[in-house]
Protein: Deoxyribodipyrimidine photolyase-related protein
Amino acid sequence: MSRLILVLGDQLTRNLSALEDLGAGDVVLMAEVMEEASYVPHHPKKIAFLFAAMRKFAAGLREEGVEVRYVTLDDSENSGSITGELLRAAEAYGTDEVIVTQPGEWRLIEALDDCPLRLTQRPDTRFVAKRSEFETWAEGRSELRMEWFYREMRKKTGLLMDGDDPAGGQWNFDHDNRKANPGEIAYGGPMQFTPDEITEDVLDLVEARFGDNFGDLRPFWFATDQGEARRALTRFVKEALPLFGDYQDAMLDEEAFLYHGIIGLYLNAGLLEPLEVCRAAEEAYRSGDAPINAVEGFIRQIIGWREFIRGIYFLQGPDYAQRNELGHGRSLPDFYWGAETKMRCISRTVAQTRENAYAHHIQRLMVTGNFALLAGIEPQQVQHWYMSVYADAYEWVMSANVIGMSQFADGGLMASKPYVSSGNYIAKMSDYCKGCAYDVKTKVGEGACPFNLLYWAFLDRHRERFERNPRMAQMYATFDRMDEEKREAVLSEAETFLNRMAQGALV
Ligand code: FAD
Ligand code: DLZ
Ligand code: SF4
Structure:
């Protein structure tokens, strides 16, 4: 009797554990379903990317001679959910045995657990560390810090290792990175692909069904198969990686991509694998084409941060995304969805997000994330926004980044102090402030940058929790040195700003 092998939209690799013993008589099931396409209002580019990549992956399997049942979104019989499609396929093929690689989201793992078929969820082997390996590493540790886990991953993979020692004599070259805004960018950006016929069909479908979601569908230029994604990787490694480290934290008004990879969406959907990406980067270092600070920094993002973030998500369980340790409850302002704001840093980050379904890490962390944290927005609304607007967004990688790293809503599991900053940081790392209606140098009074006001108000609001944190002592000392009158003016202006924002005034 045949087995059904379910392949989800973000599992598009032939090395998938569910496909490893694919045999004659097995049927691969792939389905475009409304439940997955609308659990958040995904950016239209993300939906188009996944549907096009799914259709091409299915075509590749068929070329190999594999029987594929592919259900399109506009199929009149489409039940609308993954489990619904499993049940329909089980009936059509007269089988109840299903193999799937475990999804990256508790919601779907639980839905599959509840599916009344003989269903096996196999571990997702597309990561360097197994879930169980991370759990063993984390067990008994009072603090979970990425750096220690990362070193284990370096040893495990042998990446940038010279025998037992780290290449270049150090594990981490971060102090050489984080240069401020480079002014100009000597890189043409990520490789762009002209949509083929399959992709054009998908674009029409997405336009008709998801045209009202936040985000520009066209121009659409993402890679949609493994070959294209590898070409995009090759271009990045050759042309951008050498400067990746130097400018990884910089932000420019007119440049969305700087020297970043724009590969997260490909990695997360299965078109690229973490080790092939890291080996390509290491090769550039070994052959003298890219410096150690860039290559180490880049590899750390992938075998360090990406793996660590996933480990935390699964370690913490399904309730992690609901945490709100700071008790923040304000609503996300409309300017996250494109309404006008006078804050240039936010309006540019949101505009680039709308256009590309992309913003780089520091825009996510220190502009939109920082503002939401300072303003006391409810973390679940923040997470919903991030899930909705980025092409690389999935809950396994979003939760620890948003709930943990960005919003401190897990109370400090992910970060030893909240990622908050006044306008100074943005002014130093970007050119946004020069085009802004606010003045970053003004701390209080007419034209004061809202980040400046909200920064002190945040510290004041959470004094009890953070005052004794040694990494924040300096911030409180500075605040306390302000004269009483100025302190009161800052707090009162911050309050006025937040109230005006809540009323939908232009801020
Ligand atoms: P590069 O800057 O070129 O980095 C290379 C790769 O490193 C990325 O593609 C990614 O795979 C990995 N990486 C780097 N930092 C992280 C990190 N913190 N967590 C996980 N992987 C990392 N990344 C996602 O893949 N999906 C998300 O939904 C997501 N949401 C985020 C939300 C917030 C609030 C923050 C602060 C970060 C988030 N990130 C997310 C991490 C990071 O911002 C993106 O991975 C990165 O911007 C993707 O762009 P890139 O491919 O150009 O990455
Ligand atoms: C994100 C997404 C979207 C938009 N659509 C589909 C789909 O129609 N069919 C499918 O199999 N997967 C889709 N996905 C990816 C899933 O939502 C993803 O597998 C889970 O969120 C777990 O990571
Ligand atoms: Fe952002 Fe403040 Fe700079 Fe304006 S002045 S761009 S609000 S940091």
The mean pLDDT is 97. The domain at 4-122 is CATH 3.40.50.620 (Rossmann fold). The chain is about 50% helix and 5% strand.
